[in-house]
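Weekly structure sync - notes
Attendees: PM, LS, DV (DV joined late)
Agenda: review two folding runs queued last week.

Item 1: First target. Sequence and structure tokens pasted below for the record.
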Amino acid sequence: MAPKNMLKSEAGHTRTAYQGIRRMLFHNEIVPGQKIAYRDLAERLGMSQTPVIQALKWLEFQGLVRHERHRGYYTEPISVQEVEEIYDFRLQIELALLPRTIARMDKAGLKTLKTALDAHLKASREIYLHDRLVKDMEFHLTLAFLSGNQVQHQALRNLFDLLYLKYGGNLLFSTSMDKADTAHKELFSRISEGDLDGAQSILSHHIQRVKRHVLNGLERLMEEKDNSGF
């Protein structure tokens, strides 16, 4: 039996590899439809192949990559239908949680939500695309967390993983940050006033607008690839 400290070390390396691969997916260093060369990944991460393979197994379990017997690991190609389903499910979860969030809201909760809103508004609008995406996600996850429903909060986090990791941040960012800023500020205002109907209306329009922009962008991208012959 392996010593405990050795097992802890192996788990730590796997965790490091897992986080490193997640970053590559998010920054489009690994793109949809690509074969994943785990030997190259191990080189880039500065570690052996074993923790990289273990990390890829974790990602496979999450549905972010797939394994083909005797061929290796791959990312899935773009699926407009899947992205549409993810946004529809996200909308269902977030709208369902709003009544609980507003009912439970207190001064501490409002302060927590305001902190998430301010972080989103302060994120760079010119260069750091990924920071803006992360802060946008954190605002929505904070809103869900304040409902107290841990299962749906985790389900929402998993949906963001599918969007931002499986498809990559750059492919999805096609909506105006000004519109997102306005929607988030209006949503916070309605929640602070206890206006459930107004908050649900703003949230619904916000997510559906983002969904339309993203789907249009993905469809254009796929058309360009078809026309280019790649």
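Item 2: Second target, run right after the first with the same settings.
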Amino acid sequence: MTSLYKTLILLALPLLIFSCGDAKSLTDNYTITTSKKKNAVPNGQEISFSLKAKKSYPIDSIVYTLDTKKLATTTQTSDYKTTAQSTTLGRKTLTATVYTPEGTTTVTDYITILHTKAPKIYGYKIINRYPHKTDAYTQGLEFVGDTLYESTGRYGSSSLRKVDYKTGEVLQQIDLGDAYFAEGLTVFNDKLYQLTWRENIGFIYNLSSLEKTSTFAYSKSKEGWGLCNDGNVIYKSDGTSKIWALDPANLSEQTYIEPTNHKSVSKAFNELEFINGKIYANTYQVASIAIIDPTSGAIEGLIDLTSLPKEVQTGLDPQNQVLNGIAYKANENRLFVTGKDWNTLFEIEIVEK
């Protein structure tokens, strides 16, 4: 090795050490703060970002993105104002990519895009009462014409049922077996789809015979809770704040919405029903139904059913034997609701308060 080569290496070493040291020092150097309480902002309104640094470096530029959408490029580190605009509401990842002479680093935080309006509040009137089997731990409920299909849960007694809604008689029943806890169901293209809770598997049945024809898996969503469809897309809740849009060809999770009102993101939506362009959703352990825009996730209405459990038999467990089950009889524009192990299926009319 020549002396000149050794000299070049020795001269380069301090530069390498300095460069590596500075790059390392950028890690965790920055945090993002916003002008909004709890980082929550109504859709379309102004919000400002500030970049706080533990150690000050010259900044060439900052690129802000919301999820994957670029918001702005700026050199302003304090109170940079922008509009929080999104086609979907809910929790979004805010990323700042910071470019400095010493290197590049990223820092993330979350902001919540809220609905701009409070939901309309509705009450109800009972139109009719029909018998409902008290061994039906209702998880899914859907009409096809005059026939009611019901999914019932619990390990050891989960089933799929074809029901005469006027008498409560079970016309046909398929038992799932002790290993499965059945959840929501929906009918799509003459097939019946049924979820399980924690087993990460769904079942597909022939609608006319209730013969099980195949299964499907879900991996992105946490659990299986509710199902409904709009004639083109199947929607699935999983107990979190997410309602997933499934590919009808293979039932894989594609995208999701997060139901959100003017104050916060909601979660624990159980039974789902698609009615006149909106998702109607039970909230687990809450006697209400949310009316949700399937495109944005905006909670546009709430149906207050808090007095309805008083209309069924006494002695039910208020934590488990709760309101759950929404069925829309589209051919007659009639809405039905029930609960887990309730003795009554109610036909109700929604009235605005």
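Discussion on item 2: The chain has two domains: 30-114, 120-352.
Action: LS to circulate a short write-up before next sync.
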